[in-house]
Amino acid sequence: MLDQQRVSTGTTASQVALEQWARLCQAFPEPIIGVLDRAYDATWLWCQLNDLPLKGCLIRLKLNRCFYRAAPAPTGKRGAPRKDGDKLQPNDPTTYGNPSGQQEVQDSQGRTIEITWWQHLHLKEARWLEVSVIRVARPHAANSERDPRVSWFVWIGDQQADLVEIAVGYVRRFSQEHGYRFQKQALLWAKPRLRTPEQFERWSHVVAIVLNHLVLARDLVEPALRPWESTHRTPTPQQVRRAMNKLLPQLGTSACAPQPRGKSPGRAKGVKIGKAKRFLVVRKTPKVPPLIPK
C-alpha cells in the first residue's frame, strides 16, 4: 500500500483520487497504468487524468454510459453540421455497430476470454477527449453481481496501446478489494468506535503499516496453513499473520518493559462525561462540472 487518504467533508472521492495519482506520477520514473472501479465513472475525473503523465487509465463503466463516434462529414445542407456521430451505449446492443477489433485470449487457467473494442470515441461533455471502449466477455463466469460474464471498460490515454493486454490486466485489481476486506476482518480496521476523524485517520495509517509489514514478512516466516489451504500458492497476508507470533519475539521491541500496576482508581469523583459531539449530515453534489479544455 503506497498511499491511503480519507475523503474529507469538503472533498469528493474523485478529487482525492486525482491528488493521489498526481503524487504517484512523481514517485515513478516511468509512466504507469491506472486501474479504477466503477465508482470513478466521472467525466471530470477522466479529463483531469488525461492531463497527468500516465500511460493511461482503465476504468470500469456503468452500463448507462453513452459514447459517440466521430461526426460525419458536412452534407452541405442548411443548418449547423452534426457535432457527434452514432452513439455507443453498453446496455443497448443495437448501437454496437462494427468494432475496431476483436480477439479471443486465454486466462491463467486456460479459459477463453472474448475482448472487443471500439476506438476514437468521445463524450458530449468533452468532445476533445478521445477514448476507447472495451467489452470483456467471459462465457465461463457465473453471471452474478460479483462474477459477471460481460464487463465494460473505458481506456483513457495512449490510443496505440495494446488494449487486449490492458483489459486482461484488470483482474489484478481484485487483490486490492480482498486487501481492504482483510483489513476490516482480520486487522480490525472498522472495529474501533473513534470520536473524531483525526483519530480514525491515524488508526487507518496504523492498519496500513501493519498490512505492509505482513507483506514484507512473507519470506521471513513459514506460513500457518489450514488443512484445506494449498501449499503451492503464494502465502496470503492472513496466513502470514497467523505465523507472526514466532517472528515478533525474535525482532524485539524498543519500548520499555511494562510496569506492574495496582487497581486503577477510576475516574475522579464528580467527573461528568459528556456525550459525543454530533455533526450534521453532509450531502455532496453527485456530479462535478466537466473540465473546459484550454
TrEMBL record:
The cross-references to Pfam families, in alphabetical order and at most eight, read: DDE_5 (PF13546)
SUPFAM superfamilies recorded: Ribonuclease H-like
Q: Mind telling me what this protein is named?
A: Transposase IS701-like DDE domain-containing protein
Q: Where is the Transposase IS701-like DDE domain?
A: 6-117
Enumerate the InterPro entries for this protein: IS701-like_DDE_dom, RNaseH-like_sf
Here the segments flagged for biased composition (Polar residues) are: 91-105
Top-level division of the source organism's lineage: Bacteria
* Region Disordered: start-end pairs: 74-105, 252-271
